[in-house]
């Protein structure tokens, strides 16, 4: 029967109890099943048994809690193949591997040293070739002295060895390198670099003609002027594609103007091409592909979408709290963040930068006197020693590219190609290619297309949400307490037909038929008054 409030009378006098009394009272009154039995068991073996059960129960409880918490912060990766009738065509950025035109440097005082190096290199190279092909008899040709009429040998063994050794040294060592190669300004790149109307001889998208006006101009210090098709600056007029294969997509015939190359600035000939999302800043020097002249290159692309989880499951960012290049025009990317970190460090330590981005209009380009400081920062950047906070973006689109190529143009096709170039009024290109050799030194053909319209979705999914974590925790608690699967309930005998003999030996008070009901109430033995 239940007690009324009138049946309760407070103690007439408060007693001062010790900590041991408090703990003993707690052990006797707590609803935790095992702790009271540790206190009131008369036999030592019973106390030990219940102590072990309680310890094991707590260990299991904390282990399970740890696993739940660990799974809450974990995530699984799910990969799906998404079918689509059409996909957005990526932006395509193309650059000539040569930054500045040779003919444009002639009238520039800043670039005189570079052009003199080019001229000296050519003269010394051909003089060396002539010397190396001189016959041994010519090298031993005697000289005549008109004063005494004697003929003397002009060459000794020592002199011949010195001459051969001198001729075997690199040409650049004998004439020296330019004292300094200037960093071109944005205006110099615009005025002296390759232009879109010269580079892009022919353009087709989905078998429809396009031209240089469909490209926007970007700049970087590695390649100078670059040109982007389907770039974000064209607003909502982005291109979509509904068919796959090399007959569709973007086709370009590119004229690299090989005669305009500057050897002191460029090691390779050809173009650099990068496919990227329209809203991401192009970085062809880091993630692009180099295409050689004299070849037709097929670039089959596959789209991959990546979705990452933010805190607390991951560390991705949408870029709102990060500092990255051209953030007023492009969305966040790891490369734009890392380059911003690199240039910020150079600007603060060296008072200059090496790239003429809009973000650094008020800061001068690095010159020769700042070379050592610049090289120190570059070394830190390339060794990944700069402390840059640049996590992966929460959403990212990448294009996996598979390339194949063939020699182009074919010998007999050259005449048809030459006629087409003339009809398109590209006269500079027409007169620069007098034969098939010239054509293969100057022309690049590129075809960029989708291999399939399906795209791959790589998505991180949380192993547990707040709701699922709560459900798991409640379910586990109910399973442990209601179903009697915890160690203490098993010892009390809810599933006690196997435990009855052992439990009875521990104390006559234990009734194997006794069980505890736990739902949303306190756990109390059935039939006991509150």
Write the layout of secondary structure elements.
Elements: H1 19-29, H2 34-40, H3 44-73, E1 75-82, E2 87-88, E3 91-96, H4 102-105, H5 112-132, H6 136-139, E4 143-144, E5 151-152, H7 157-168, H8 171-175, H9 186-192, H10 196-199, E6 200-205, E7 208-210, E8 215-220, E9 224-229, E10 240-241, E11 250-255, E12 271-276, H11 284-287, E13 289-291, E14 295-307, H12 334-350, H13 371-382, E15 395-407, H14 414-423, H15 427-432, H16 436-442, E16 443-450, E17 455-462, H17 466-482, H18 487-492, H19 500-506, E18 516-517, E19 524-525
Parallel strand pairs: 14-16, 14-17
Antiparallel strand pairs: 1-17, 2-10, 3-9, 3-12, 4-5, 6-7, 6-11, 8-9, 11-16, 12-13, 14-15, 18-19
Helix pairs in contact: 1-2, 2-3, 3-17, 12-13
How many domain regions? 4
* Beta-strand fraction estimate: 15-25%
What would the CATH topology of the largest domain be?
Acid-sensing ion channels like fold
Shape: elongated
Number of helices: 19
CATH architectural label of the largest domain: Sandwich
End-to-end gap: 7 Å
- Which CATH top level class of the largest domain fits? Mainly Beta
Helix content: 25-40%
The average pLDDT value, as a whole number, equals 78
SSE class? alpha+beta
**Rounded Rg:** 41 Å
The overall strand count is 19
CATH superfamily of the largest domain: Acid-sensing ion channels like domains
């Amino acid at each position: 029967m239940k007690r009324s409030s009138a049946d309760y009378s407070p103690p007439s006098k408060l007693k001062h109890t010790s900590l041991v009394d408090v703990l003993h009272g707690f052990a006797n009154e707590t609803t935790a099943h095992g702790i009271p039995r540790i206190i009131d068991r008369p036999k030592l073996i019973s106390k030990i048994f219940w102590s072990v059960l309680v310890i094991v129960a707590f260990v299991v409880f904390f282990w399970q809690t740890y696993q739940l918490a660990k799974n809450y912060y974990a995530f699984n990766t799910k990969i799906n193949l998404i079918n689509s009738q059409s996909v957005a065509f990526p932006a395509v950025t193309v650059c000539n591997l040569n930054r500045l035109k040779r003919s444009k440097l002639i009238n520039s005082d800043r670039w005189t040293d570079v052009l003199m190096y080019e001229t000296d290199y050519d003269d010394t190279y051909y003089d060396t070739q002539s010397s190396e092909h001189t016959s041994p008899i010519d090298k031993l040709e005697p000289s005549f002295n008109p004063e005494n009429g004697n003929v003397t040998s002009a060459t000794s063994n020592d002199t011949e060895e010195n001459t051969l050794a001198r001729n075997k040294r690199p040409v650049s060592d004998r004439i020296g390198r330019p004292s300094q190669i200037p960093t071109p300004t944005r205006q110099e790149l615009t005025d002296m670099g390759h232009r879109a109307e010269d580079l892009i001889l022919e353009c087709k998208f989905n078998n429809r003609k396009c031209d240089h006006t469909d490209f926007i101009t970007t700049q970087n210090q590695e390649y100078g002027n670059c040109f982007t098709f389907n770039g974000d600056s064209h607003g909502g007029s982005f291109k979509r594609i509904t068919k796959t294969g090399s007959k569709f997509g973007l086709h370009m015939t590119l004229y690299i103007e090989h005669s305009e190359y500057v050897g002191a600035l460029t090691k390779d000939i050809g173009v650099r091409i990068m496919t990227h999302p329209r809203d991401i800043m192009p970085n062809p020097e880091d993630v692009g592909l180099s295409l050689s002249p004299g070849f037709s290159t097929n670039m089959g692309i596959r789209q991959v979408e990546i979705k990452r989880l933010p805190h607390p499951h991951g560390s991705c960012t949408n870029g709102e709290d990060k500092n990255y290049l051209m953030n007023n025009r492009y969305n966040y990317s790891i490369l734009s963040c890392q380059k911003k970190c690199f240039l910020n460090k150079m600007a603060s330590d060296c008072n200059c930068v090496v790239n003429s981005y809009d973000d650094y209009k008020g800061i001068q380009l690095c010159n020769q006197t700042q070379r050592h400081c610049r090289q120190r920062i570059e070394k830190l950047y390339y060794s990944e020693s700069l402390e840059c906070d640049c996590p992966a973006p929460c959403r990212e689109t990448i294009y996996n590219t598979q390339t194949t190529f063939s020699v182009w143009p074919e010998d007999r096709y050259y005449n048809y190609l030459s006629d087409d170039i003339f009809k398109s009024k590209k006269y500079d290109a027409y007169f620069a290619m007098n034969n098939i050799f010239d054509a293969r030194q100057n022309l690049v053909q590129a075809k960029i297309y989708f291999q399939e319209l399906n795209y791959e979705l790589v998505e991180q999914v949380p192993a547990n949400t707040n709701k699922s974590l709560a459900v798991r925790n409640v379910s586990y608690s109910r399973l442990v307490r209601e179903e009697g699967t915890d160690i203490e309930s098993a010892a009390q005998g809810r599933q006690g037909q196997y435990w009855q003999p052992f439990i009875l030996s521990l104390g006559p008070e234990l009734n194997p038929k006794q069980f505890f009901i736990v739902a949303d109430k306190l756990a109390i033995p059935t039939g006991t008054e509150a």
